[in-house]
Amino acid sequence: MPDRNDHHHQPAASRDAAGSLNPNLNPESPHPETTRAHEEPLGSLFDDAYALYEDGKTYLEAEVAFQKSRASYASRETGSGIVFALGALAFLHLALIGLVVGLIIALAPIIGPFVAVAAVVGTLLVLMIIVGLVARSRFKRVSQAFKGDRA
Description:
The protein is mainly alpha-helical. The chain has a domain at 43-144. The chain is built from 3 helices and 2 strands, in the order ββααα. The chain has helices at residues 36-39, 43-111, 113-147; strands at 14-15, 21-22. It has a two-stranded antiparallel sheet. A hairpin with a 5-residue loop joins β1 (14-15) and β2. α2 packs antiparallel against α3 (113-147). InterPro entries: Phage_holin_3_6.
């Protein structure tokens, strides 16, 4: 005779892992229907979250390594670029010296050597003063733009 407390045996339905009656589970069926919740315990959610954390950490480490190598490359290239830019400016300076000397030599037969030197040097000094005043006005603009910004 069946025991009154024997509520676990149901012919058409079976109890799931939580103990509730689930009519979809049939123990006589060769392939009982199961859900994903029955296949993976609650711990797998934490495993997935931890795997996601580890993947994010790995991605972040890879990104930092990539940015470091990119910054190193940019630093090396910028350094060599500065060296070549200074070299170009040195050659420009030499070319301008040649132009000045050439102007003095070309003007010497026409207006005399001393007047030619005075004319070329005077012109260069006037140009230097004009460019210097323009530079000073630009620096004053920048200074005034930040003067009211006292945070």
